[in-house]
Structures are given as structure tokens and as C-alpha cells.
Write a sequence for this structure.
């Protein structure tokens, strides 16, 4: 999630929807690396709600496959997700080819670790994170074992609120390929 002030707007339940147009910018390039057609996908923080918002990642992914097979989980009871559960405590029972989401920033490392366990061999884990996720002494040792394969930087600050205001944070889609440890990440500017 992004930083707190957001133009002095605080949304109910601290829910901030990932902008679909930013997901689409990322998917356009990512689909060239990892064709999405026919892939099993999991979004463990799907968001959405039946009255106001669609689930952004599943919606954006529909453009890239006719045989879209997605499974959605969200901890919020008012989410449109198929399953209401805490992903970090959930056995999913299948190996997705792709796990993609915007996790809570305070639990991002835990989401990445679990996703890397759950994703199919040669599958990908994609998480939208603040660029400052890279800059933590706490994660210094973790980065040595879990360096992403790619980092897709969004050069413009994103708006996560209906009023279109942005905060002071830049974001990137961080991508890990399972079982292919890297010593450095390839950087893309979208």
C-alpha cells in the first residue's frame, strides 16, 4: 500500500484500489516475457467490492487471455474475491503459474515468501511495491537469497484514491521467477 497522507484523504477500511491503467502498462511488457494465455493466476489481495469497485488485477488480466483462469482471495469480507481468508494462513491447494497482487506493505515480505512457495515451478510472483522496499537493513540478507528477476518501475506517481491525488511514493512491479535466483535484477522503466 502507499503512504498515508494521500492528499488528506483517508479511505474507509484503508482500502486503496490499484489503478487498472498502471497494471495494464505493466502487463503489456510482462506478457512479452511470460505469455499469459491459458495461465492459472492467483491474486491473494484481490480487493474489489460488489457495490463500488472491480478487482483490478483480474480485470486487467482479462485483456491478455481468452482462457483466463484466475482465483481470488481477500481478507476483507466485503471484497468480491472468491475466497475471504488471510492468504498468509491459507493452503491454496494448487500451483498457480502466476501470483500477482498489491500486498499490504507491512506484510509484503511475508506475502512474497509464501507466494514463492505456492507458485508452480518456473512460475512468476509479481508484487506492486514501493520503490523504497529496496532500502531496508532488515531485508538486506533476504535480498541476497530473494533478489527479483525484474523490477518494472512506474515513473509517474500513482493515484490510489478516487480524487486522483498522489502521495510522495514511487512504485514498481517486482517480479520473481521461481527457482531461478538472481544476483541482480533487470530494471525496466514503463
Amino acid at each position: 500500500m502507499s503512504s498515508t497522507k494521500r492528499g488528506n484523504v483517508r479511505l474507509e477500511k484503508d482500502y486503496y484500489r490499484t489503478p487498472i491503467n498502471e497494471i495494464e502498462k505493466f502487463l503489456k511488457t510482462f506478457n512479452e516475457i511470460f505469455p499469459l494465455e491459458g495461465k492459472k493466476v492467483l491474486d491473494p489481495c484481490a480487493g474489489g467490492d460488489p457495490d463500488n469497485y472491480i478487482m483490478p488485477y483480474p480485470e486487467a488480466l482479462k485483456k491478455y487471455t481468452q482462457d483466463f483462469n484466475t482465483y481470488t482471495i481477500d481478507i476483507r469480507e466485503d471484497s468480491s474475491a472468491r475466497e475471504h481468508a488471510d492468504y498468509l494462513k491459507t493452503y491454496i491447494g494448487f500451483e498457480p503459474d502466476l501470483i500477482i497482487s498489491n500486498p499490504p506493505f507491512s506484510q509484503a515480505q511475508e506475502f512474497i515468501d509464501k507466494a514463492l512457495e505456492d507458485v508452480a515451478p518456473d512460475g512468476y510472483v509479481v508484487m506492486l511495491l514501493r520503490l523504497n522496499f529496496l532500502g531496508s537493513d532488515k531485508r538486506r540478507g533476504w535480498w541476497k537469497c530473494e533478489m527479483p528477476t525484474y523490477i518494472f518501475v512506474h515513473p509517474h506517481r500513482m493515484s490510489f484514491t478516487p480524487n486522483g491525488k498522489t502521495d510522495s511514493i514511487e512504485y514498481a512491479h517486482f517480479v520473481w521467477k521461481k527457482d531461478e535466483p538472481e544476483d541482480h535484477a533487470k530494471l525496466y522503466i514503463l
Observations:
- The CA atoms of residues 106 and 160 lie 17 Å apart.
